[in-house]
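Students often ask why inverse folding is considered easier than folding. One informal answer: many sequences map to the same fold, so there is more than one right answer. In these notes we will look at a single instance of the problem. The structure comes first.
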């Protein structure tokens, strides 16, 4: 019987076996694709559920993070399955090889299923808690606090898998080749198995614009519907020479603009169910954005909130306000003075298929004092939405460009 060498061999296709090597590669890639599809569809279905219950904001950096994280994790899980197949070969170079290989295969499978079970458990709890406590909406925002912890999960698994391989083989550059392959596969999965925000052709976008006086900037209000009824909406600021692109928008963290903007300042408010509250100041494209974050009370808690609709005979604009005259209430309070005024800022002009303005949409903040009670020292408001329909459709040119959002013709 020839002596058995105690020196570990270098890992190679010959040591693994040609058929077993390619079987592992094909199985690993196929598994990574299936797992990535499952991950991304679960994420999208969860987002669909919570967006149907609560008003949340979908910020692109969250989408990018979760697409990358889930694709990277799927790639590492696929690689671990490939290595599990490789370690099943029968080319032994020492008496410990069979035990080390069995240990490596068991270790990889335990790690593989433990991660899948943990994610399945977490996803199940996330679905359940959405219906019990709206504080769990912050699951969608975990990346802002625990982003590196998420990324460490596939990194730790990658190096743990190669740790057990090194019990049997000298890996040399194979581990770095595998790392490069994982990153390449991550990029491919991220761009093929998930819905991407940067594909504007997948979205049905309604767009309004408001130029900022004495500047080359314009504010857009967008309302976009996409994959499995995903709804994105909000404000973005850009150069007036550049067309609006959903994937390259500079998001303004406001729900509504409270006064006509200028080149140096845009001020408004946001209603939230969760912290942070209070005043927040940021800068985008050289413009200061001031956001007043208030506690959001549901409309049903105050009879003064909800939707009110009127027709009007005439209107008049000033620099800061718009007045409606000759009001007829369709539903909502009847005003004895037969007129009403609102500050400009976030008023939307809605056009029909002929380009005529048939409605102006205005949102007003209504103070809330009853339950549910906000946190201490945090003002609570709900939103009252007004529809003002002219008695006959109006040309868009009869309205000024100052403080009003006009529809963008596609």
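Output (designed amino acids):
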């Amino acid at each position: 019987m020839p002596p058995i060498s105690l020196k570990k061999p270098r890992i190679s296709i010959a040591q693994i076996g040609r058929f077993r090597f390619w079987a592992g590669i094909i199985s690993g890639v196929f598994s990574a694709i299936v797992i990535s599809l499952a991950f991304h569809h679960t994420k999208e279905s969860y987002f669909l559920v919570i967006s149907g219950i609560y008003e949340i904001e979908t910020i692109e950096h969250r989408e990018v993070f979760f697409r990358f994280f889930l694709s990277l994790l799927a790639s590492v899980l696929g690689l671990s399955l490939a290595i599990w197949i490789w370690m099943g070969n029968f080319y032994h170079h020492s008496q410990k090889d069979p035990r080390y290989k069995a240990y490596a295969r068991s270790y990889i499978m335990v790690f593989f299923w433990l991660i899948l079970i943990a994610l399945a458990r977490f996803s199940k709890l996330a679905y359940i808690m959405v219906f019990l406590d709206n504080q769990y909406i912050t699951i969608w925002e975990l990346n802002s606090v625990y982003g590196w912890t998420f990324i460490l999960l596939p990194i730790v698994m990658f190096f743990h898998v190669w740790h057990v391989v090194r019990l049997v083989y000298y890996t040399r550059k194979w581990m770095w080749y595998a790392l490069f392959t994982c990153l390449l596969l991550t990029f491919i999965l991220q761009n093929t198995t998930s819905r991407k925000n940067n594909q504007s052709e997948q979205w049905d976008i309604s767009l309004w614009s408001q130029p900022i006086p004495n500047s080359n900037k314009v504010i857009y209000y967008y309302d976009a519907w996409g994959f499995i009824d995903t709804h994105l909406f909000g404000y973005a600021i850009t150069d007036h020479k550049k067309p609006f692109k959903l994937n390259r928008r500079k998001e303004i963290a406001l729900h509504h603009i409270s006064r006509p903007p200028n080149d140096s300042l845009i001020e408004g408010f946001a209603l939230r169910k969760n912290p942070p509250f209070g005043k927040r100041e940021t800068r985008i494209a050289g413009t200061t954005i001031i956001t007043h974050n208030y506690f959001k009370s549901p409309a049903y808690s105050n009879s003064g909130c909800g939707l009110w609709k009127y027709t009007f005979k005439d209107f008049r604009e000033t620099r800061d306000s718009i007045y409606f005259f000759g009001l007829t209430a369709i539903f909502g309070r009847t005003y004895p003075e037969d007129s009403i005024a609102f500050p400009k800022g976030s008023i939307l002009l809605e056009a029909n298929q002929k380009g005529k303005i048939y409605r102006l949409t205005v949102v007003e903040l209504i103070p809330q004092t009853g339950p549910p009670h906000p946190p201490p020292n945090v003002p609570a408001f709900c939103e009252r939405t007004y529809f003002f329909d002219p008695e006959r459709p109006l040309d868009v040119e009869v309205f000024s460009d100052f403080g009003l959002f006009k529809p963008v013709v596609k």
